[in-house]
Amino acid sequence: MKIVYLPLARPTFSMPDAEAIFNASSGMLRSICESASVEMIAPSILLTSPEDLDAFLAKVENPALIIYQCTTFIGSDFVSELIRRFDCLVVVWSLREPSIDGGRLKLNSLTGAFSAANSLLAQGHAFRFLFGNVDEVFLPIKKIVSAVAMRTCLRNLTMGVIGTQPAGFRFGEIDEAVLKDKLGVSVKRIAVSEIIKTASEYRQEDYAEATAELKSRTKGWETLPEEICDKHARLQTAYREFIAKEGINTVASRCWPDFFNEYGTAVCATLSFLNDTGVPTSCETDMGGAISMYIGSTLTGGATYFGDPVAIDDSCNALVFWHCGAGATSLSRKIEGAKIGKHPNRKIGPTMEFGLKEGAVTVMRLGKLKDGFRMMSMKGEALNEPQKFCGTSVAIRPLNGSPTDKINQLVNDGWEPHFVVAYGEITEELRLLCQLLNIDYKEY
Predict the structure, then answer these.
(1) CB–CB of 339/223 below 8 Å?
(2) Which portions of the chain are predicted below pLDDT 70?
């Protein structure tokens, strides 16, 4: 992924001020690109004419993002070169005037930004405008880079799908051709029976590492029958083998009733550990949920939670998200820890049993439409609340509006019953990602 920085200026304005802006901006942008592991392409000097710009762009191929900085006033003859060559997102960046003192207009950067934005709009070219000095735009640019990188990640994403959706859960199925066309995501499938067969054939030394992982990540594992611990470790090893063999980045997995009936154990702890170790994994074979988890995990750098909105807890004015027991152990409340137990309905383990940790969160979901996708988000605060039901749960207080209002809106808008809780505030990244993907976005 390449990000191109274009520092543009006209020598008739204050070049010392423009040079200072260029040097500070270069350092800031390089730090962002290095942290995001993306390549930054930039000139060593200010570009002061359309001819300079044309010569520089001749060396550039397939940028994912262009940062078009008006260090001084520049006309639309500069931006016309970009429109002709590239179709990627353009960030138009205007700087503050160094001084307003009745004297010379030193930069006139803002007028240059108006000129560029007008030309981009007239040509139907996607752009974002930023106004402010280097310290003011650091966070917005960081979010933009994250969103653009996220789009690139989706184009290279391979999702593993294990089994099919349970009866009544067809909302989790996505046509693979639509998925590839709209998002760029590829799919690798495997039957539950094949996973079980692989797990059953391992020798003890083959799954010793998974046994150790169970003991190191959970509290109360010793309460499980030895046979259940053994079956879990085999299953964990089979999942990881499938993921490694197929180059998989995220998983949508079948859970009930197959693993209970045909294998004699729950798959919940296996999915929990995958989420902990960088492979976002949904249950009930929810493909849109798995992609949502991948997006949330990539943007925040941590595990996400996958759950149903099941109740409104009036005692803490929060919406409760819950699932049977596949929450990542890293998300457990410290006071509880990652306790292990049995499935509340099937009475078979291992499942995770805890309330989730507190913190700022973004509830999100990539939704399926008849011929494409949409996305939602909701800012909230995960409260320091204990486990609400058997399994894993989190109580989230919406930042804007009441839990009842949010439920009414989400149900009336027809969203799927599975949502993803990402720890962090990523609504701006999601909004921009949807713009880049040309899909509808709604914030609640």
Answers:
(1) no
(2) none
Are 42 and 27 in contact by the 8 Å Cβ rule? The answer is: no
The predicted structure's pLDDT at residue 344: 85
Confidence at residue 84, expressed as pLDDT on a 0 to 100 scale: 87
Q: Which residues contact 39 (CB under 8 A, 6 or more apart)?
A: 1, 2, 3, 33
d(CA 61, CA 2): 9
Tokens of 191: 């039957």
66 Cβ contact list (under 8 Å, min separation 6): 3, 4, 6, 82, 86, 88, 89, 90, 91
Domain ranges of the chain: 2-155, 158-443
What region, left, alpha or beta, does residue 377 occupy, with left being phi > 0 and alpha being psi -120 to 50 degrees? beta
CB 2, CB 62: distance < 8 Å: yes
> What pLDDT was estimated at residue 26?
97
Indicate yes or no: pTM above 0.85. yes
For 40-83, the DSSP string reads: EE--SS-B-SHHHHHHHHTT----SEEEEEESS---HHHHHHHH
Q: How many Å apart are CA 414 and CA 412, to the nearest integer?
A: 5
Can you name the residues that pair with 379 across neighbouring β-strands? 362
Tell me how far apart the alpha carbons of residues 205 and 144 are, in angstroms, rounded to a whole number. 46
Domain 2-155: which CATH class? alpha beta
* CATH 3.20.14 is right for the domain spanning 158-443: yes
